[in-house]
Each structure stands twice: as structure tokens, then as C-alpha cells.
Amino acid sequence: MAELRMLSVSFDTHLLPWQLPQFRGAIAEKVGLEHEWFHNHDNENGGFHQRYPLIQYKIDGHQKQLRPMLLCMQAGVEEAHRYFSQPDWTLRIGGQDHTMRIARLNVQQHHLRVTDKPQTYRIHHWKPFNPENYQHFRNLRGIAEQFTFLESLLTSHILAFATGVGWQLDERFQIKITELVQREWVDYKGLKVLAFTLDFEGNVGLPGGVGLGKGASMGYGVVRGAK
């Protein structure tokens, strides 16, 4: 078992999901591009860090309002002060200045553990594929084979999350997809990629709100907590 520290902050302004990259860029500019956890680019070697993002940018749809939200975990909680200690929180997003006031703030600790009984979850707009495993998925003929492959990818993404937050899994866990809610093509970095919203169960305790898979830092693959 491990403890996950989480800080989530929603801001009292309106933002659409496609504006999340602009929101991230504005935050990164405000704190300084030398602080790589905010944008995950590798300033020294170029490209991106191959690590789980401890600062994630999301849309908070609480009460049907679309507010930009920061989710910070572990070391990302300490990094958050680089923005909140600024004398001026104003962000320029898409050519418009936004006065960033806190609408909702939540600090919590989550017990990461393998559970005795399966927990049920829904993951939203999960992007599981790189080019190689997408081609493998296309070659699978049966739905059962496809689900088995997706379960293996989801398991690997949970393991990547565990590694990124310092959770050493000493016990095995199993994932089972119980319902495919939606399958859709989404725009991501100028490309059309396949994303899934689905229900799954597994004997693992995951915190609600964290992202899994590709684009986890930008609102994809968001896990909603155990029902």
C-alpha cells in the first residue's frame, strides 16, 4: 500500500476542452519553461519525458460548468506553488486574458492498494494505442480478442501510473472490461486517434480523476472513482 497526495484546483472561468493545450501553455509560461513538470518537454535533450505526468490539465464539469482544472500529485503538489505564489494569476489563453480565481480546491490523500474485492470504474476518452499496438488491434478479428488486448493495455497503463507515483505493487491484480460505452475518433496533435469510454473492474484501488494512457496530462483517460 502507498499514499498518494493529490491537489485539485478548479478556476472560476469558462474553458472548452479543446482549449486545454492553451491552458497548459499559459500556465507553463507563467511559472517559467524551466519547470518541466508543467509541460513535460525535455529542455535539455529535446522531445518529451517518458514519465507519468504528475501535473495534469482537465475540465471540471461540476454543476455543468466547464472550468479549467489543475490536478497535481506527489511532487507535483509542491511544484504547484510556482504558479500560486505568483503575484498575478492572470493567464492569456487563446488571445484572451482570464482572471483566475479559485472556484473549488480539494486536498486529499488516497490509499493505493490491491483490494480483496473488485472495484468498478469508468474511464473516459482513453487513448490506449501507439502505432504498433493499434495495428495489432486492427488485426484482431473477434471482440473477445480485442477486449483481452485492451485489458492488457489498461493494465500496463495502471502499472505506469503506479511507477510514476512511487507505488510498488507487491501483489498481482486483474482487470476486466465489463462494458464498452463509446468508441470514437478524436483529434490529438493534428491526428485522428481512436479513443474509448468503457467500464471496467479490478481488484485495485484507483483515485478518481487521474488520467491513464496517452494524453493523460491533457484530459484523456480520466478514471472516475469506484462506485
Keywords:
single chain, alpha+beta, Alpha-Beta Plaits, 2 domains, globular, 23% helix, seven-stranded antiparallel sheet, 5 helices, 9 strands, 227 residues
Q: Please, could you describe this protein's structure?
A:
The protein is an alpha+beta fold and 227 residues long. It is 23% helix and 38% strand. The chain has two domains: 2-109, Alpha-Beta Plaits (2-Layer Sandwich); 114-224, Alpha-Beta Plaits (2-Layer Sandwich). It has helices at residues 20-31, 75-79, 81-84, 131-139, 143-164; strands at 2-11, 55-60, 67-73, 91-93, 96-98, 102-126, 175-188, 191-205, 222-224. The strands form two sheets. Strands 1, 2, 3, 6, 7, 8 and 9 form a seven-stranded antiparallel sheet that branches. The longest helix is centred in the C-terminal third of the chain and has 22 residues, at 143-164. It is globular, with a radius of gyration of 18 Å.
Supply the CATH class of the largest domain.
Alpha Beta
Largest sheet: 7 strands, antiparallel
Count the beta strands: 9
* Class per helix and strand makeup: alpha+beta
Give the SSE layout.
Elements lengths: L1 E10 L8 H12 L23 E6 L6 E7 L1 H5 L1 H4 L6 E3 L2 E3 L3 E25 L4 H9 L3 H22 L10 E14 L2 E15 L16 E3 L3
Give the structure's gist in a few sentences:
The chain has 227 residues and is of the alpha+beta class. The chain is 23% helix and 38% strand.
